[in-house]
Structure formats: C-alpha cells, structure tokens
Amino acid sequence: MEILTLLKSNKTLRTATIVVLILLILATLPIYTPDYTIVLLSSILMYVVLTVSWVLFSGPTGYISLAPAAFIGVGIYSTAILGDSMPFPVVVLVSGIVTIFIALLVGALTLRLKGIYFTIFTFGLLELIRHLVLFLELHLTGTRGRFVIAQDFITVYFYMLIILAVLLLVTFLINRSKYGLALRSIGQNEEAASHIGVNVTTVKIATFVISAFFMGAAGAVMATRWTYIDPGIAFNMFFSFMPVMMALFGGMAHLYGPIIGSVVFTYLEEFLLTKLPELYMMLFGAIFIVAILYLPDGLLGVIQKGWAALMRKVRKDNLGGNHANS
Amino acid sequence: MLTLNTVNTYYGKFRALWDVTMQVNEKEIVALVGANGAGKTTLLNTISGLLQPESGTINFFSDRIDNIETNKIVEQGISQIPEGGKVFPEMTILENLEMGAYTKEHWKVKDETIEFVYSLFPKLRERKKQLARTLSGGERQMLAVGRGLMSRPKLCTFDEPSYGLSPKLVTEFFDIIVKLREMGTTVLLVEQNVQQTLEIADRAYVMENGRIVSEGKSSDMLKDDHIKKAYLGL
Which residues contact A326 (CB under 8 A, 6 or more apart)? Predict the structure, then answer.
C-alpha cells in the first residue's frame, strides 16, 4: 500500500517504474516470441537509440546535426577491425570510445557554426569520412569492405536493449540537471546563455560527444548483423536522415515523442516493405509528408491533444453527474 | 572596484574601443552614455568577457579579469543584464531564474536567491510556472534583471534597460536600480535615456566613436552645455 501511495505522489518514481517494467518485459521477450519478432525489435531498438541520442543534443539546442551516419559508421568500422581480437562487450565499448574521439574532432570543428551552416558542415563531414575510409582502403590496405564477426540475433537484441537502457538513464539525468537547462537555454538564446556564465562551447561539445557515443555503440552492435560492410554501407546517409525524420514524426516536446516516433516509423517501414514492396518508398514518403503538414507537434502532439480532450470530457461528465445528484 | 586601463577592443580589423580608461567605485551608480554605435555595448561585453580586449587591462578588485572566461567573471561577481532582456522564451520564469545561478557556487544557494528575487519582484513569484514568452515587455525586463541578480553580483552592468519600455515603466525601472544600490550592489548603467540616467547616477562617462570623451559628476554633466545640446536636446 505504501509503495502505491509513494508512486502516486512521486511522478519521477512512477515514470521510472514504468520504464523499468517495459525494459524487463522486453528483456524476457526472447523466451516466448518468435525469432522474427526479436529481429524486428532489434531494428526498432536501434532506431530508438539513434533517435533518442540525436534528440539528446539536437532537440534542446536546435543544432540539426546530420552527423549520425558518420558516428554509426565509425562504430561499424571499429567493430569490423577489432571484432576478431577482442571479446564482444569490449568491442562495443571501444567502438563507442573511438566514436567519442571522432565526435570531439567534429564538434570542435563545427560547433562554432550556427543554423544551416552547422547542418551542412556535419553532412559534409559525413561524406568526407566516407571517402577518406574508401581512399585508405584502396591505397593503404588494398581492400574493399570487410567481414564482421557475426553475433547471433539474441545477443544483438540484448546489447541493443542494454545500450537503450543506459541511454535513457543518461538522458533522464541530463534533462533534470542544470546542464539540461543550459542546453535548452543555448537553443533559445545562445548569447544570453553565455552572458549568464554558461560555457556554451563546452556544454555543446560534451553533449554532442555523449550523443555520438551511443550512436557509435549502436553501430558497433548492428555491424555484427550485416556480416559484410564497406564504406557505402557503413557511412550510409540514410542513417543521418532517419533520426531527424523519426524525431519530427514523433514530436520533440518530450522524451516520449522520439521513442514513439521511431517505434511507429520503423514498424511502418517494415510493414510496408513486406506487404507492399513496390509501393513502399512512395507510401512511406507520402505518410511522412502528411505527418509534417498536419502534425506540427508530431504523434506526441496528437496524443497530448487526445488525452487533454478525454480529460475534459471526464471532468465534464463528473460535473454533470454532480449536478444530477444535487 | 572595477578599473579599466587603456582598453582596446577590435572586431576583426575594426577598432571599436580606443584606449578606454574608466573606473567604477564600490556602491556607485556610474552611467555610460553616448549615441548609437559609440561602443557602449562593446565596452560592457569586454568587461563581462564576451569580447577579449586586444590590449589594456581590466581589474576587478585586485584581480585581472581581461582574458578570462565569462563564467569565471560571473563567478567573481559581475553580472551583465543584456540589452532587450534576452530571456529564454520557452522556459518557465522559475527556470529562467535558475539559469541565472548557473555557476557552481551560486547553484548551491539558488533557492534562497530566488526568494530574494521574488521579494524584489513579487509578480515573478505569481507567474513562476508560466513560460517567459507569455510575459509583457516590462515583465521580461524584470525577469532579465532577476536572472542577472541570481549570481549575487557585486557589480551589475545594465545594457539599455529602459529600451522599449513605457515612460511609467522606465521610472519604475530606475527606482529598482536605485534600490539595488541601496542594498549594496554597484551599478554600471548604459543608457540612451540620458536625462533620467544622470539624475540617478553619481558619475557619468560619455562615449563617442569608441572613445571616452568626457567624464564627471552627473550633477555637473546635467549643466554641461555640450551634453545638453548633444544628448538632452536642450
């Protein structure tokens, strides 16, 4: 009973309990669901990780980064290179750390730019890294692409789940700390933020790097599912646009938005791809356009509006009932 | 308290401040007046570390503060209230105020400081959960001052606080500045509203084209013919 009252009064605790429950349910899924579901869920989890880590930085600051594919690619290549010389958990961790260094470099180069310049520059860097790797493979190692030590799909699933759990925890902690406030203040008025004494550049780079770490780790895990990779696969610009689209689709006002957005979006993609392979891209594009035009706050906005309307109705009914009684 | 000695600041090749030497003593209200583009904001931004001087020194008490970062300067006790308020529109009033206490030491005591700011501006307490964008221009300016006070500054620099406010609000605002000084805060005030500024200030500096062209007691300045002609329209 006491636990129930505590849960009722403390919103943070309530949310945390729900999240932990969902994660536990996800963790037990492989016992009783078909393999296909687990494979699909791994994809979904990957996109949730990518989108949430993208929103971690780009959401509050408004710096639209198109670098995710670069970070994922670095994670993928790290796994491909290190995969046969280290145990898998170390590979994932090291891949994340390598990504941190790349992100530090990218951040230091780009985060003094603002708006569209930042966006284009991150995109340019993605292409630069891709061609650099291609060049190195051609002239240094004389290879084209690499094989990756494969992991079974259950392992991939669990690693993705652990990465997501850690990411959610980190995001939660940042959002409620003063750094979360600082990030939002940068997005709203960078000049005023520096007036107050926020070390704008440090805060931006630190968050950019944290977000990149998770993208790199996710890339490292996913690489084992593809078994063969080359620069075109690893540094696919698709991975830069997907998190942006999923975040917009879900809505960015709250952390639920990107999560809902990426889950629905990935499932939709899978559904269209299997049921209507010829029309898949066309329908996908159309749905996205409709979402942008008619759902300015994303799916989250729709849910919030629906919830508010429901609450109003409940209250009205209650009032009506009271009137009838009196 | 604050001493500037032959400070020169550049924007690239453009020299915006020319050998600026000035001084602010404890518990003074010092006014800095001048036309648009005279370099007043540049001077404030140089003091608060947003711009680095090319040459010259700035001392706050006994410490050199030129070439150190803004967050360090805020920690030392200088708070700049920027032009036009520049509040964070999509954050609540409470969050805006909390941001003012961002530096380490001030964050620990932010709840007490917020109470102090609320006592100064009771309206902010009433609306603490509201988003800052829902405030009127005057209220935003109030919030900006409140946010600036959250770092418990010894020296407050104001950049055109009366800009865009109605005459009644301007008067209220100058009252607040006087009140701040009574509580022990030193004020450096940049203003275009020269008449009212000189009435509350102890001393004043006049800037033209990046240079300090005259300085003196405010009461004397009010009588000065050049000032009267150039800034008071008399």
Answer: none
Please indicate whether, in this complex, the C-beta atoms of B86 and A197 are within 8 angstroms of each other: no
Q: Which fold has domain A33-295?
A: ABC transporter involved in vitamin B12 uptake, BtuC (1.10.3470)
Total structural domains within chain B: 2
Q: Say if residue B194 is in the same domain as residue B222.
A: yes
Q: Residues A79, A95: contact at Cβ < 8 Å?
A: yes
User: Whole domain around residue B135: which residue ranges?
Assistant: 86-152
Backbone angles phi, psi at B207, to 5 degrees: -110, 140
Q: Per-residue pLDDT averaged across A229-236, rounded?
A: 91
Return the SS3 of B80. Answer: strand
ipTM of the complex: 0.85
- The Cα A57–Cα A215 span in angstroms is 12
Residue spans per domain, chain A: 33-295, 296-326
Candidates B80, B82, B91; nearest CB to A185: B91
pLDDT score of A323 more than 60: no
**What is this structure's pTM?**
0.88
- pLDDT tens-place string over residues B67-94: 898 989 999 999 999 887 789 999 999 9
- Answer whether B92 touches A (CB < 8 Å): no
